[in-house]
């Protein structure tokens, strides 16, 4: 029993020795702490794994500048398109509905970056001029159904409405606090004897008016003779003239006589009386200036009105219901979205990136509803910006949607090599340290990207990857060799991503081609692929498509650049496709086998029919 306890205590001591990251570093730096026999090299917390990597000087100053998600403060060679967007959207700052905009262009031509840049400027300017204007961005490649688009928009506007209501309630509660403070101040002023002299300060007559003279004794007691003034006898009372500071003797009978300012029976002279009245007037005016009523410049007439407004806002907040990502009828989602948008007066710009993906997946119902909203909205106005890589996607739209959506069209042409060089130069000044780039790096990156339809995104990825490879090699400068290595790496990464996202049937066709290549078959024809494909489908219990459909899948793989399929004529035997792989076999096979359904066919060696090649 004692052995177990001692063992447990030893375990506790060991755990306590690792009480924190900082303490471990501190203890490891202490000379002579612990013995060599007690330390196990495998258990040491710091093996120098990252020390060597951190020892070199970093090449990057700000790597995020080279990522596609970054929106720069300046977009070279896109000023014409940006200015055109601005001239259309400026109507929102006047409280009007801007025209809908469709933006076309190939991948990497600056469409999204330019639209986001203009949107950011629009929102900042609307705040400057206190004009309610909002821009909501949705990537339709991710949010690709009508339900998801409407639900995401509805929840964004519900969140914005709740934030506005919270701000308004805080302001109204502060107004109630000011109102309570104002009432307390007025009440305290009326009860303060020093704030204003009243008739109750003088005994025997409630109609006494301040005559500019202050009494120096208790009201009912003569300090000189200790005679009780309540007996009615006329005794002297000492007072101080406020205007001169002299002591004045007044009898109680004089005090009992009414004083009328400006009349013949006035005890004090006209100058002092007028001075007193001027002082009183000045006091009233300063009182009005210091204690302006909190509701003076508001639409509320009483505290009850403010409380009613708070209750109404809280009821509105309680009525909001967040839309779940699934489960509601679409018309209910649309109704919630409509009410959320129309809750307050504002102009809303909805930016739909990759809008062609939404139309391809869900049809044009979403665009029809959004483009027709303004005819029903009471408080707000909605405008749409659609961004697409497909110049022909509008051919599939309903004519009514096409006419209302494509009111303005802006085309973004591809960049040429010189323009790409300017873009890379502009970004590299912020992304890298001073002399991290050799002179031939940016021109080479621009040349590689210009070969692929002027894709600025590809050029930025190439430059960033070249910098990462140089940094991993602990090189001080990025050179041409790093750019070429980055080109190969990006190409492989692109293939991996494309293959990974293929449908299962396309993966089976590709896997059949890989197995044929690994078995030494060259110039593979469609029939051979189909035979192997059928056996693979049997292995994983998948549906077998027709040979015609398999031929279509091969054409799709050819279009993606994964295989190379060429139609050749066999004379009287007809025509066939000769197929070969365009990607590395080992890497592509590894990606296919990472699919859980295809992992079971790792060891399948299909029979390959012998043939006589001409």
Characterise this structure.
The protein is an alpha/beta fold and 614 residues long. It folds into 5 domains: 54 residues, no CATH class; 171 residues, P-loop containing nucleotide triphosphate hydrolases (Rossmann fold); 146 residues, no CATH class; 66 residues, Helicase, Ruva Protein, domain 3; 112 residues, Winged helix-like DNA-binding domain superfamily/Winged helix DNA-binding domain (Arc Repressor Mutant, subunit A). The protein contains 21 helices and 11 strands. The strands form 3 sheets. It has a 5-stranded parallel beta sheet, sandwiched between helices. Strands 3-4-5 form a 3-stranded antiparallel beta sheet. Involved in regulation of DNA replication. This is ORC1-type DNA replication protein. Pfam families: Cdc6_lid (PF22703), WHD_Cdc6 (PF09079). Keywords: ATP-binding, DNA replication, Nucleotide-binding.
């Amino acid at each position: 029993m004692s052995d177990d306890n001692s063992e447990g205590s030893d375990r506790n001591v060991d755990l306590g020795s690792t009480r924190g990251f900082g303490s471990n570093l501190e203890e490891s730096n202490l000379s002579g702490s612990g013995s060599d026999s007690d330390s196990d090299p495998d258990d040491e917390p710091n093996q120098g794994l990252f020390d060597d990597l951190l020892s070199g000087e970093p090449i990057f100053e700000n790597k995020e500048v080279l990522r596609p998600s970054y929106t720069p403060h300046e977009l070279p060679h896109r000023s014409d398109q940006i200015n055109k967007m601005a001239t259309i959207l400026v109507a929102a700052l006047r409280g009007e509905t801007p025209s809908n905009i469709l933006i076309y262009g190939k991948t990497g031509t600056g469409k999204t970056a330019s639209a986001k840049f203009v949107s950011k400027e629009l929102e900042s300017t609307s705040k400057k001029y206190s004009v309610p204007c909002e821009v909501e961005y949705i990537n339709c490649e991710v949010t690709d159904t009508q339900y998801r688009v409407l639900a995401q928009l509805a929840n964004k506007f519900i969140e914005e409405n709740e934030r506005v209501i919270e701000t308004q309630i805080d302001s109204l509660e502060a107004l109630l606090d000011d109102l309570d403070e104002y009432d307390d101040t007025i009440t305290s002023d009326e009860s303060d004897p020093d704030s204003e002299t009243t008739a109750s300060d003088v005994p025997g007559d409630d109609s006494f008016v301040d005559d500019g003279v202050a009494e120096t004794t208790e009201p009912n007691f003569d300090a000189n003779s200790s005679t009780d003034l309540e007996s009615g006898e006329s005794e002297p009372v000492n007072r101080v003239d406020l205007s001169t500071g002299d002591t004045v003797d007044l009898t109680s009978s004089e005090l009992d006589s009414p004083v009328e300012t400006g009349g013949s029976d006035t005890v004090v002279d006209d100058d002092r009386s007028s001075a007193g009245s001027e002082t009183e007037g000045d006091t009233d005016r300063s009182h009005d200036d210091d204690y302006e009523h909190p509701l003076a410049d508001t639409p509320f007439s009483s505290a009850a009105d403010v409380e009613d407004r708070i209750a109404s806002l809280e009821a509105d907040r309680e009525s909001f219901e967040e839309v779940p990502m699934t489960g509601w009828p679409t018309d209910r989602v649309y109704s919630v979205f409509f009410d959320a948008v129309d809750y307050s007066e504002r102009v809303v710009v909805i930016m739909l990136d990759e809008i062609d993906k939404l139309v391809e997946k869900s049809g044009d119902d979403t665009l029809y509803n959004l483009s027709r909203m303004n005819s029903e909205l009471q408080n707000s106005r909605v405008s749409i910006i659609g961004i697409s890589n497909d110049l022909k996607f509008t051919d599939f739209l309903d004519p009514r949607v096409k006419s209302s959506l494509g009111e303005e069209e802006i085309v973004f042409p591809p960049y040429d090599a010189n323009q790409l060089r300017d873009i890379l130069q502009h970004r590299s000044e912020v992304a890298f340290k001073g002399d991290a780039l050799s002179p031939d790096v940016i021109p080479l990156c621009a040349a590689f990207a210009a070969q692929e339809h002027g894709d600025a995104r590809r050029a930025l990825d190439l430059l960033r990857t070249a910098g990462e490879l140089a940094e991993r090699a602990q090189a001080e400068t990025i050179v041409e060799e790093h750019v070429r290595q980055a080109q190969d790496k990006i190409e492989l990464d692109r293939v991996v991503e494309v293959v990974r996202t293929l449908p299962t049937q396309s993966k089976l066709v590709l896997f059949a081609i890989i197995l044929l290549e690994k078995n030494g078959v060259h110039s593979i024809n469609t029939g051979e692929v189909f035979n192997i494909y059928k056996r693979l489908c049997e292995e994983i219990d998948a549906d077998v498509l027709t040979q015609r459909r398999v031929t279509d899948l091969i054409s799709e793989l050819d279009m993606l650049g994964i295989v190379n399929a060429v139609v050749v004529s066999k004379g009287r035997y007809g025509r066939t496709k000769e197929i070969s792989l365009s990607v590395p076999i080992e890497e592509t096979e590894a990606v296919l086998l990472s699919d859980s359904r295809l992992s079971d066919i790792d060891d399948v060696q299909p029979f390959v029919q012998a043939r006589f090649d001409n």
